[in-house]
Amino acid sequence: xxxxxxxxxxxxxxxxxxxxxxxxxxxxxxxxxxxxxxxxxxxxxxxxxxxxxxxxxxxxxxxxxxxxxxxxxxxxxxxxxxxxxxxxxxxxxxxxxxxxxxxxxxxxxxxxxxxxxxxxxxxxxxxxxxxxxxxxxxxxxxxxxxxxxxxxxxxxxxxxxxxxxxxxxxxxxxxxxxxxxxxxxxxxxxxxxxxxxxxxxxxxxxxxxxxxxxxxxxxxxxxxxxxxxxxxxxxxxxxxxxxxxxxxxxxxxxxxxxxxxxxxxxxxxxxxxxxxxxxxxxxxxxxxxxxxxxxxxxxxxxxxxxxxxxxxxxxxxxxxxxxxxxxxxxxxxxxxxxxxxxxxxxxxxxxxxxxxxxxxxxxxxxxxxxxxxxxxxxxxxxxxxxxxxxxxxxxxxxxxxxxxxxxxxxxxx
Amino acid sequence: xxxxxxxxxxxxxxxxxxxxxxxxxxxxxxxxxxxxxxxxxxxxxxxxxxxxxxxxxxxxxxxxxxxxxxxxxxxxxxxxxxxxxxxxxxxxxxxxxxxxxxxxxxxxxxxxxxxxxxxxxxxxxxxxxxxxxxxxxxxxxxxxxxxxxxxxxxxxxxxxxxxxxxxxxxxxxxxxxxxxxxxxxxxxxxxxxxxxxxxxxxxxxxxxxxxxxxxxxxxxxxxxxxxxxxxxxxxxxxxxxxxxxxxxxxxxxxxxxxxxxxxxxxxxxxxxxxxxxxxxxxxxxxxxxxxxxxxxxxxxxxxxxxxxxxxxxxxxxxxxxxxxxxxxxxxxxxxxxxxxxxxxxxxxxxxxxxxxxxxxxxxxxxxxxxxxxxxxxxxxxxxxxxxxxxxxxxxxxxxxxxxxxxxxxxxxx
Lengths: 413, 413
Known about the structure:
The structure is a homodimer of 413-residue chains. With 413 residues, chain A is α/β, with parallel strands linked by helices. Chain A has 14 helices and 13 strands. Chain A has helices at 18-30, 46-49, 56-62, 65-71, 93-104, 116-132, 158-176, 196-199, 224-237, 275-286, 299-302, 309-327, 378-384, 407-410, and strands at residues 4-10, 35-41, 53-55, 107-114, 137-142, 183-189, 214-216, 240-246, 290-295, 333-342, 345-353, 396-397, 400-401. In chain A, the strands form three sheets. Chain A has a seven-stranded mixed sheet with strand order 3-2-1-4-5-10-11, sandwiched between helices. Chain A has a four-stranded parallel sheet with strand order 7-8-6-9, sandwiched between helices. A two-stranded antiparallel sheet of chain A has the order 12-13. The longest helix of chain A has 19 residues, at 158-176. Residues 261-265 of chain A have low confidence and may be disordered. Chains A and B meet through helix 7, helix 10, helix 11, strand 13 and helix 14 of A and helix 7, helix 10, helix 11, strand 13 and helix 14 of B.
């Protein structure tokens, strides 16, 4: 059999396990009869356009332990981009160049690891391939901490972010409970349109702590009066209230809840803050209680030291699955996870046509949120619980986790 | 020998290893010939005043594995307080009550685990004991992520916070390097008056990443024009700049760099933000570059899952040391760490008179900061490096770290 090569790229925002899918693709091609070399395009599709392409087979052959290190390294080893391909009916020049590059490198399959926007790229490349009669397989591999991709039961990267959020909420609860004075702590969690990750805060609850006591997702409208009533009600029976909110909470008119322009900072400049700060000041002005807001920052998407082993293993397996499917000629598709059982938790790896996935988004079902819109229901917890299970073996050196050398990304353009 | 009992309490802000010192005190008393039962005062000195006292010997006897779980649990198992004892020359009523409680429980030694304010309590109780001729030993056990206590080489809790900060900076670097567009990321780290913890960000540097590229501590004056020049200079040779700043950076007049009152948030309320936001907007207004600020939140002091084993072991040993010293009649003191060698790193456990420690603060030496005031020097890194070494074995259940049940803290007063 005349072996071809294949190519992989990563796009969108970071996750803790997006490199596990990359490692899965590399591992899949190394064990494949169909492929010889696997190339990596640096900064998503831009790498192909700018001739910035790495030989990933070499990287692993040079030092096989790189595969394991790669699997556990956060963010994109290959870098990312926010580049949206134009419609090829308007302008096919970039498509033309991309497929010429594919031809030059004898590419048989292209794998694109990413979220919603990246699946749009997969769809466009697939359509273009069909149009020009190319037999190059184009397959998307999902990743996003937002968990908002259609068809797949969940997305790689989400379980690790959920584990980080739940673990952080538990540690913040310990931090909060120490003072015997009434207090409110608001924790703002990523998720502009979908509340999956904020819902994961509920996994922090255990036999001694029911924090977070209130949870607000963007799937329901936020009402400030009802919110203040909720908080006062909680404070009647507890000293320390912890509230989890999505960054994307909004009122019934669709306006985001956030803090606006400032006019008097140290340098006289303007500023914008998020929903957490806005609610902090809403409470400060209306309830006589100690209050603070905490923004769970970018670490929720890149703290690979606390990733979920379940998530890592699934992300890796999806990378291998994509390679296997391409060997069977599958194209214009995204690999998917299907939950075949919840207890014990098992998944099947499959695929779905990309046209049913790209440019659609999956929200938290309203029936998994309580009627008052201030908590999630048991069905939500049942769905979430298996996704955060298991801890990877992380190697530490000088007290810090060992990750892949990404100096190829830091060179000046 | 007629056995006495002893008592321990915790005070001030949380750390990841303050319970390791508590476990050390319990372990020390369990192996002691001098003490029978060890009691814990809930919410610092307030527990004695409010009759809220736990039997810690029982806790461990009931389930010996509690000692190990306690050692790894964040924040104060016994709760905390921000209560400052009055001068007993003005009002000795609380002193009178405290020592009556000590007598009632047959207390031979009282251990107070805390930071600067807590050592003020140790000093006052010691002076009062001397005045009334009590032979109860009063010993302080240091803890603070600020690392600003005198005499001791460093403070328990600092090493774990430093490990968290360095690890976070490394993960944020991976997160930042993925886009091939110029960007500045400002990371705000705790430390109002001392820059030790912010300096620890420099430990994130390795063979492939020199982030953070700029570091500003409160030990030097912050000048916004010099800062903008520094940033522009960095952007000339790199795409993605990461800057670590202490929350307490201030100008030459002593004014904190922060963002002031906002007037237009969603609810028309005012707000205040920190130095990170202020610098984010300073850059936005002066340099044409993508910029964001990240506040390393309360997790830097309570993320016990990422604590330093060196720190945990030292915190535990200091608890045991305090018990041993009290058996020898040492009082009016704080246990200390003396670094006897840096390579290999070794420490000796000793003690110092509390009057030389209370109400004093230790800053980063100016000679460990570069002349420009925008980085730390190798001597600083040599000092810091051993403190973050080693990872504890953390038990996970349902995907989350297992910590001590603190339901005794959440009951309404």
